Every structure is written in C-alpha cells, then in structure tokens.
Amino acid sequence: MATKTVYMAQGFEKKGKGFRPGTPFPFKTADDARRRAERGRDNFNAKIVGFIALQMDLDDESGELQNEPVLLAKFGELPKEFSDE
Fold first, then answer.
1. Boundaries of domain holding 22
2. Superkingdom of the source (predicted)?
C-alpha cells in the first residue's frame, strides 16, 4: 500500500455559534500551505475568521486517511478541534 503526503490550507467562516469550512487549497509542500494560511490571516474579513494548514497521509489507491492530520499552522477563530484547550 503506497502512501502519499498532501498539504492543504483552509479558511473557516463564522456561522452562528459554529464554523463552516471553506474550500481547501492543496499545495505541494508544507511551507506553501503554511504561507497560504498566514496570508489568509492577514486578510480576515466579516466572513473568513480563521485559517489552518494541515499535512495528511493518504492511501494512494483509496484516498483514505492513514493517520491523524498534522496541524502545521493556525490563525484566528477556529472550531474546537483546532483549539489548544
């Protein structure tokens, strides 16, 4: 079973008391995903209130997640699963 590592950055919108994930942006490197999340932080607005960058290992054939995603960077207001608490 071959595994591929993917990197992504994703913004979050505030929706009532919760959050709605935006469209994920795929990247070739962890640094690129981190930089995109950081640029997102610099452009928060009434809709986008937070941004994350993740690293994920996926089965190359099935696309299934092989382990827990690694949080590379986070900025702003985010859902509980991304908090330090």
1. 3-78
2. Bacteria
